[in-house]
Amino acid sequence: MPSRKRLFFWGLPLFWAACLLLAILGLPWLEELFKQVAPGHRQVIYTRDSFALLLGNHLLLVGLAALISISLGLAGAIFVTRPYGRDFLPLVSQVASMGQTFPPVAVLALSVPLLGFGALPTIMALALYGLLPVVRNTLVGLNSVDPAILESARGMGMSPFQVLWQVELPLAANVILGGIRTSVTINIATAAIGSTIGATTLGDPVISGLVNGNTAYVLQGAILIGFLAVTADSCLDRLQQSVSPRIDSRAL
Amino acid sequence: MIELHQVTKRFGDTLAVDAIDLCINQGELCVLVGTSGCGKSTTLRMINRLIPHTSGRLTIEGEEISQLDEQQLRRRIGYAIQSTGLFPHWPVARNISLVPQLLGWPEARVAERVKELLELLNLPFAEFAHKYPSELSGGQAQRVGVARALAGDPDILLMDEPFGALDPITRESLQNELLRIQRQIHKTLVFVTHDMDEALKLASQIVVMDQGKIIQQASPTELLLNPANDFVAQLLGGEDRGLKQAGLLRVAERMLPISSNNPSLDQAPVIQLQDSLRQALSMMLWHQCLQLRVYEGESLVGYLPLDRIIQANRHA
Questions:
Q1: pTM of model > 0.80
Q2: With respect to CATH, is domain A52-251 assigned 1.10.10.10?
């Protein structure tokens, strides 16, 4: 693919990333504007931590949680679709779909009595919550591979690992990445709620603004979380498109 | 040589294959034929251990296959199925090179083999090597499937209704090509079909199966002449049997040399030497005549009167 097309392909994620960066650097300069939003407040720009620090912390939390949920989710879903793990398939797929009905706030609230306050319980709660879309989509992806393809792969003399690595995963990659995308995007939003249980995230200005009735803080936090979410979502969307199996040479 | 001795397959309580004995010789094209659920596909898949046999001895070149490494065994047995099972995310060339790569052939030899096979199956390399399976027609995909099955240069080729989903014209041309390829490469072929015409056309040995048992094992001509029971006769098409047998015989086998004192011959329609007696009969019916001129390419080589065709069938 020519580089100009490649650039265009990644254009949308780059645009959102630029917006995010601009917001991080630019929000402190918009004091006059925010004064209109929150009249009567002496301070209208959130300064307890720098926005860059909040963003970094937020990303770290989500990143660690995603790492855990992706690796556990993939391993689990692969395990229950192998002959020796089939017995657990109904259990795992039921838990995966049931877990989706849980609101993320409840997950955080429930993790406090177990794990206390701070970053660790937030990571655990996010990882657990993000696990479900990964498991569900991996199961769907692996199960949707045409059985005739698997039979011929085995019939050609591929080992079970070769079938998984060279046939099943590439053919399911699109759906699996869809799950990862959902997982990460939801968790970027959910991580903000982590501020209520003592983690430092982009949710801090929002919570603080809500507590003090300072709409300007709320807005600043919301803008940053929003830009981060769309950046991550569009990045993963492009990633999904670029790894999905090419099945047509005309698409070159 | 593939030998099955009292081979049985049970799925739970049902007996899919019931203590069959079968011997398939090197270079033979053995067709397993029967209605659906008769155990023919199960038998085929037991040979490459996609289905393990419950009891009995199943040997290839004298080696019991349950003792061999499963993957090594499959890599030396070609396998082609009706739905082709081509990997949709790999281009044609990579699909074909699968088994050679599993066998660890050097890259240059693999590339050469892919070229050779595409050539053998009449798929020009430049046009097809880089296409994806979704861009192929049914017939082309099946050719690639056959090429992939042949890629590792196996001694044995298993084919499970490979032409079952194709239209009649494509199917016939692929059958002809399979016969041509078999004459060239001389593998041991085990072919499963429910289509008796296909079996009669391709087979050197036909195995008729019903309810997990072998009902009859014979050459196509033998089978037509002496069906073991009503089931086989019915499978052979009942009253159509005469025509089916005529379809197996070539004009070349029954024609007479040209006799000079036969003036009526000048008007007779023309048939080719390698055509079947069935085609000859059809021409006679169509042109309302009792004899045909036989040509080999452009030159007249003999003639074929109706009574020779009828005799031919009796004495075959």
A1: yes
A2: no
A245 and B75: CB-CB below 8 Å? no
**Tokens, residue A155:** 């019939």
pLDDT digits (tens, 9 = 90+) for A126-171: 888 888 899 999 999 999 999 999 999 999 999 999 999 999 999 9
Tokens representing B118?
A: 């595409």
| Identity of the residue numbered A189 | A
The count of C-alpha atoms lying within 13 angstroms of the C-alpha of A246, restricted to the half-sphere facing its C-beta, is 12
Rg of chain B over all Cα atoms, to the nearest angstrom:
22
Give A139's Cβ-side CA count (13 Å radius).
Answer: 23
Residue type, B15: L
Residues 212 to 251 of A: which have CB under 8 A from any B CB? 245-250
Which residues share a beta bridge with B108?
A: none
Inter-chain touch B91–A249, beta carbons under 8 Å: yes
State which residues of chain A have pLDDT below 70.
1-7, 245, 248-252
* Chain A residue with the nearest C-alpha to that of B160: A152
Q: Please give the structure tokens belonging to residue B164.
A: 């079952």
Find the largest Cα–Cα distance for chain A: 75
Residues forming beta bridges with residue B300, ordered by sequence position: B295
3.90.25.10, 3.20.20.140, 3.40.50.300, 3.30.43.10: CATH of B2-238: 3.40.50.300
Domain segments of chain B: what residues? Answer: 2-238, 247-313
For A140-171, give the DSSP string: HHHHTS-HHHHHHHHHTT--HHHIIIIIIHHH
Q: Which letter, b or e, does each residue of A198-217 get, where b requires 16 or more Cβ atoms within 10 Å of its Cβ?
A: ebbbbbbbbbbbeeeebbbb
Six token digits for residue A41: 């407040």
Q: Does domain B247-313 have CATH number 3.10.580.10?
A: yes
Environment class of residue B34 by beta-carbon count within 10 Å: exposed (0-12), middle (13-18) or buried (19+)?
A: buried
Nearest chain B residue (CA) to A170: B89
